[in-house]
Specification:
Elements: H1 19-29, H2 36-42, H3 47-59, E1 63-69, E2 73-79, H4 81-97
Antiparallel strand pairs: 1-2
Length: 98
């Protein structure tokens, strides 16, 4: 799923974030136990957008649920080792493109 997101690597002319930027922002916000609301405000996104990205990140194994019931009230989210590796690779790639 994540591979499909690579198609839009750079920001558009109207300064919107690409999907990889949003994913990196969410992973950055999730280093500690983090609730949906915190991620939503820190990453400046709507609840609908957050639900979309959380589904991608949870299914891809980049985030995991720390407490709560994933189907009802997930509680807290935290970045996984795979998510940390993705974030490091993202930052390395971004630094190469500068």
């Amino acid at each position: 799923m994540i591979i499909l997101l690579v198609q839009s690597k750079k920001r558009s002319s109207n300064n919107h974030r690409c999907q990889l930027d949003v994913i990196a922002d969410i992973l950055e916000a999730s280093h500690e136990r983090t609730r949906k609301t915190y991620i939503m405000y820190r990453c400046n996104m709507s609840f609908k957008q957050l639900k979309y990205y959380l589904e991608i990140l949870l299914n891809g194994g980049l985030l995991h649920v720390v407490a709560g019931n994933p189907d009802d009230n997930p509680g807290f989210f935290k970045i996984t080792e795979k998510g940390k590796a993705f974030l490091k690779a993202y930052k390395d790639l971004k630094s190469l493109l500068k």
